[in-house]
Every structure is written in C-alpha cells, then in structure tokens.
C-alpha cells in the first residue's frame, strides 16, 4: 500500500479555485521585473517571501496587486501560466478551471486581450503537452463598482469561446454579492457559468446572496456556511459545491490552525467540498500540498483517509464545468487508480 503522501501524489485531481495571478512565484517575478525594467520594492526573492505574512485577506490582496504590476506583455502572462502548468503536471492534476482578474491589469493600461491571449495560449499548449483540460473564469473585483464590472463583462463578450464563466473576488467584507446582482444576471443571459467567493471572511448572509441574487453554481470558500444550519441544509439540498482552500485559510487566518479546518466537518455533513490551492505562490503550496495538509484530519487509519481523499478528488471532477461524459471518464481514472493501490502488497 502507498503512503498517504504517495497516494495523493498519483491521485487524479481537478483544481477549481486557482487565481493565476496567485501562482506568481518570487523568482519569476524578479525575472519578469528585470525583463520589463521594473524595480521591485524588495531587495531579493527572500525579502519578498518574508513579506508573505498575513493576518487577514486584505494584507494579502495589497501584496498580490503589487505583484501583478510586473505583468505587462502577452509573453509575461504566457510564462506565468506555463510555470503553473509545469508544476501541476507533476501533481496528477488532470483538469483546471482558473480565475483571472482582468480589472487588475486593464486599470494599469494592459489590454484585456493581452492578458487573455497569454493565459489561453499557455493552456492550449498545456493540453497538448500534459493532457490537462481547462476552463477560464473571469473574476470581477468586488471592491470596484458595478459600472466597472459591466465594462469588463463587455470586454469579455467577443471572447466567449475562451471564457467559460464569471466569478467574484477581492475584498469581501463591505462588498456583498448584491452589489453585482445585475452584472451577474447579464452574464448568465450571455451564457456564462457563475461562481463567487462568499463566506471566506464574510457572513453566511453573503452566501445566501450569492445563491439567491447571483444564482451561483459553486461557492468559492463557503467556510462560514457552517455557522448557519438552514444554509447547510440548503447547500446539501441543492448540492452546491464548495471550493475549499486549506492553506489559504491558514495563511489568511480564516482558520486559526489547520487542525481546526472545517473540511472534515463539511464532509461529515455531506457537503460537496473539494480541495484547491487559491494562490499557491503566496500560501505555501500547490494542490498536493493542500491535500497533504488536511489528510491527517480525514480519519484515524490510512484506509479511512484514502476513502476521503478519493471522495474529495471525485468531488473536484463532478463539480467541474465539463460534460457528463468527461466527468465519467475522470471518475474512471480515479477508480482505476484506487484499484492499483489496493493491489500493491503491503510494504511492512
Ligand atoms: N480571496 C479573495 N480574493 C482573492 C483571493 C482570495 O483568496 N485570491 C485572489 N483574489
Ligand atoms: Zn480565491
């Protein structure tokens, strides 16, 4: 039998909550800064990494937007996306649905197409080279106003063939989903899938708003749903997936300690949760490291833990915006993988 770490390493997985700008590793940031003749306000890679000490979401967002400033050309966005693909191609990641934040770039004078073309062409290459399927989800920055979100939606319309959905991210508290009700209605009319960050720092009411007003198909994070029994019942009834991000939650102090992470409770309640990495360059780990971080909480024996890991990986595919046939194919990959594990002789 494989160890838990080995089991996670080979387990076929999907990633559904990943901000591509959050994969910007300090080494690449310095390299692109030099290429674009930009001076970073940090002396070295080490000094930059040291600044990744956050006590809440806003601390992180300030640094995240500063980091983005280095991204200027289509090649930069390609290189950023390619670096992420190279990493996760070694983690048995089979499907990804990635967020990007166009407003963070357009407001700096970078064309929407420069961003989208760079990200998309890397993903096309990743499908060819690593057989990782993908979708792109455009997020609205919730600290900006409705008008800006409408403008951003307009920019996306000519590119519907390359953008599968819209989401909502950035500073949650004080920017409830209701602020974007009309933008999301229009996005749905245009045929986009809809998701939103809700209940990361914000109250359960924001999750209700995301469901009732934005009509989201998945909730990103959703941690605070556990504070409201009626909301949990609703999420169960409607089988709404929660894209949970364990290392993000500890780095941003959404949970005080990984030992108290709500994921085991979510699974116990029957919620359709799965594991994601959110902003791996800032939070200390990609997808496998997130699975590893919570695996000790998933049971008392390796057998129990592996069953939960299989459930999490299955949820990652069944919650994806892919066809039923594709879901079935990925679930079969998982089933085949779990059989190889039980066929291996014990190593003790
Ligand atoms: N929360 C909200 N907005 C974000 C995040 C996050 O974790 N990462 C990038 N934008
Ligand atoms: Zn996020």
Strand order of the largest sheet: 1-2-3-4-5-6-7-8
CATH architecture: Alpha-Beta Barrel
> Please, what is the average pLDDT?
97
Tell me the total number of β-strands: 8
Strand content: 5-15%
Largest sheet: 8 strands, parallel
Q: How far do the termini sit from each other?
A: 9 Å
The CATH H-level superfamily is Metal-dependent hydrolases
Helix content: 40-55%
Which value, in Å, is the CA radius of gyration? 19 Å
Bound molecules: hypoxanthine, zinc ion
CATH C-level class? Alpha Beta
Structure description:
The protein is of the alpha/beta class. The chain has one domain: Metal-dependent hydrolases (TIM Barrel), CATH 3.20.20.140. Helices cover 50% and strands 13% of the residues. An 8-stranded parallel β-sheet has the order 1-2-3-4-5-6-7-8.
Key traits:
binds zinc ion; 348 residues; eight-stranded parallel sheet; single chain; alpha/beta; binds hypoxanthine; 8 strands; TIM Barrel
Question: Brief description of this entry?
Answer:
This protein has helices at residues 4-10, 26-35, 45-50, 57-68, 74-88, 102-106, 112-130, 146-156, 181-189, 204-212, 229-237, 246-251, 263-269, 280-283, 287-294, 302-318, 324-343, and strands at residues 13-19, 93-100, 133-141, 165-169, 193-198, 218-221, 242-244, 273-275.
